[in-house]
Amino acid sequence: MSLSWILRRLLLIVYTVFVVSVLVFGITQVLPADAAVTLLGENATADALAAIRDRLGLGDPIWMQYLRWVGHAVTGDFGLSMRTGQPVGPEMVAALGRSLLLAFAAIALMLVVAVPLGVVAAVRQGKLADTLTSLVSYLGVAFPEFVTATLFAMLLADTLQWLPATGYVSPFEDPWGAVRHLALPVLTASVILVAHVSRMVRSETLDVLHSDYVRAARLKGLPERTVLTRHALRNALLPVVTIVALDVGYLLGGIIVIEEIFAIPGIGRQLMVAITARDLPSIQAGALIMSATYAVANTLADVAYAFLDKRIRYD
Amino acid sequence: MTTPVLSIRNYTLDYLTAGGPVRVLQDIALDIAPGEVLGLVGESGSGKSSLAWAIMRHLPKNAREVSGDIRLGDTDLRALPGRDLTRVRGRRIGMVFQDPSTSLNPTLPVGRQITETLVITRGLSQAEAWTEALALLGHVELRNPEALMKRYPHEISGGEKQRILIATAFGCRPELIVFDEPTTALDVITGARILELFTRLRAETGVAALYISHDLALVSRVADRVAVMKHGKLVEEAPADRIFRAPQHPETQILVDAVPRPERRLVHDQPGERVLLAAQDISVRYARRRLFRPAPPPATQAVGFNVRAGEILGVVGESGSGKSSIARALTGLADFSGSIRFDGRPIAAGRAMDRQYRRAVQIVFQHPDSSLNPRQKVGEILARPLRLFGGNVSDVGRLLEQVRLPASFADRWPHQLSGGQKQRVAIARAFAAKPSLVICDEITAPLDVSVQASIIELLLTLRAETGTAYLFITHDLNLIRQIAHRIAVMRGGELVDLLPIDAIDAEHVHPYTRDLIAASPTPVG
């Protein structure tokens, strides 16, 4: 892993975000939404519409509008929301923060549960423990999020009254309240992740347990515990890094159902609101921030993987 | 008589399969005396590896031990509970495996993999183990052990890895070491050096060894006694020098006869004068220069040679020397720079090669498993080139008979055939196009010696019938010296020698060619 490789990866992020910015800008241009009409309402006079178009520069060539938008965006200025009149950037970043908190909590819970589950299933292949974890995994994958969410809410919030059913509390204001509010959405999001990651850990561990070097480690007299921890797990868990990075993408975009059910103002939900209101600056900012986060997460995973597995040489 | 280190009596082993139990080992009885090397020879499927796994107590789940004893000194290995096994493995029996590149954990530095073994088997502290490991690596002639200890397996060569594994096995000071084909995965010269190392360490330590191999010539050089296995039975056991001179059992005789001996020529004619294929300055390059990245060096550098009509041109060299790249260039599978003339006609490179040339030059690959489509029956596989090059599809049966397979094999799937039969189908497919040059890329490497001998015989018969020339790529110098008219020696992408076969022992050959000859084990006696 060389410095030039890391630099190239960073350049790749810039490139990815650039391509996304062109796409996002292009799509918002062809959307059937006229910024002037959205701002002034359906009953505005033709003169007023022309004046505001002129002020916003909507008459300029598209590339000029794009450059102006990108120029402001790199400084964090995504314009004012057409819905609330507030700056879009800070609002979206705050929403991203809430989503990332949910995502990282879900990933942490998933790792704690899925890795031991997968390893035990592999070591006890074909035995009861393996069958049970497979069953649980398939159930987890089979239920859509809104079903698991409803089941958890019914049990933990409604029947047992342990947890609040909806809402979001900032961890800086009320840490314990934040944990209680996050519990249900985190639980729901991690169910599906646990299901597929534990399956993957199981098959990776099985592969490694049948490898020549694990056989060699056993036959040179190492105790089974050392063979498992030092030789098998180290290699079996490497691909999990890549999966976690992909899951960040899923959690940011696909978690919208969970944000909606539990009323968490995360980035997915904000984006949904923006689209419904045809709030162009919010749509652009949300999409761009999400894709940048995704690109960064994947780059981090690649770097981590290269660091952990010395066979991967990037030069 | 002293107590043997290893003593096996009446050992019988079955594998349970869907079709019922299959006998793998039948009434095996053998002893290894202290300090003795017993060579165990047999073809694939003869049960020699199963015997090794039985000794190491590492049998697959479906194995059923029917009867017999395996004793290490006075320890009954079969009666040993799993917990005590770790005290025997490494400490009292070591093992060196076939493929050093898969036997080391890819994500741990090699030093760690030596010291962890020494700590467990000899009860050393980490610091003592580190010092001992340095000494061991120095002793197996590895340069700069300190730096080596911190490297990862992918950063060192196959020969270095095998030295490390051998050093570890000897370093545990066991009573017996099982060697399972320790040089098969290495190239000829590296293998020969590993063999020298084995002989030296064995003489120094006096440890007993079971040396498993399919190569009778090699085993007869390293072993005191040789045991021959066939279908799970020991058919003959004799001192190493006698097994070659006076084999008693017919199976041993077959094995002895199949060992290629360079002095026994199988081809006696001379090729015609007409140049069939003239290749000049062939350079194959697999990747191009890219942004931020220089182009890798070419796989072959400006290689030039001629093949005459009906000639057998042998191409030898280590893996990575560019032999296969030449085959890929000549068949249009890889782009190249340079020029090819075929029958005096210039031939375009890569995809632009014309159909007439593609028909005339055919290739047979190393692994028939991956070169025969598993979803097509043999008949379909052979009908395709017939249809493509204007043959008659009803000729499939005749093609099969030409390669000495029954015509009824047209209805079989590739997986229903043995390795040798599959390679015959691949040869039939090449000959379906009525080629004038067939490129054979290591086609006998995955086969047993006796099967190899019959495939070579087939190729020579086909040549006599059709007058085809062969470009025969191999790493087996003894084999190629039996059949080739000329030999091309490749190293690092370059052609270092191109010699008529009778000049191979001459004074002026390239030093590398001489090394290759010296490293090729010839049978004793």
From TrEMBL, chain A:
Major site of localization recorded for this protein: membrane
SUPFAM superfamilies named in the record: MetI-like
Entry keyword set: Cell membrane, Membrane, Transmembrane, Transmembrane helix, Transport
Any one Pfam family match given in the protein's UniProt record, by short name: BPD_transp_1
Residue ranges constituting the ABC transmembrane type-1 domain according to the UniProt record: 96-301
Gene3D superfamilies tied to this protein: MetI-like
Record-linked InterPro entries: BPD_transp_1_N, MetI-like, MetI-like_sf
Family, similarity comment: Belongs to the binding-protein-dependent transport system permease family.
Protein name per UniProt: Peptide/nickel transport system permease protein
Recorded topology in the membrane: Multi-pass membrane protein
Subcellular location as annotated: Cell membrane
PANTHER family: DIPEPTIDE TRANSPORT SYSTEM PERMEASE PROTEIN DPPB-RELATED (PTHR43163), DIPEPTIDE-TRANSPORT INTEGRAL MEMBRANE PROTEIN ABC TRANSPORTER DPPB-RELATED (PTHR43163:SF7)
Residues spanning the membrane: 12-31, 100-123, 135-157, 177-197, 236-263, 283-308
Automatic annotation (TrEMBL), chain B:
Chief location of this protein within or outside the cell: membrane
Gene3D superfamilies: P-loop containing nucleotide triphosphate hydrolases
Membrane topology, record value: Peripheral membrane protein
Residue ranges of every copy of the ABC transporter domain listed in the record: 8-256, 277-517
Record's subcellular location: Cell inner membrane
Keywords: ATP-binding, Nucleotide-binding, Transport
InterPro entries registered for this protein in UniProt: AAA+_ATPase (IPR003593), ABC_transp_ATP-bind (IPR050319), ABC_transporter-like_ATP-bd (IPR003439), ABC_transporter-like_CS (IPR017871), Oligopep_ABC_C (IPR013563), P-loop_NTPase (IPR027417)
GO molecular function annotation: ATP binding
Family assignment from sequence similarity: Belongs to the ABC transporter superfamily.
Name this protein carries in UniProt: Peptide/nickel transport system ATP-binding protein
Organism: Azospirillum rugosum
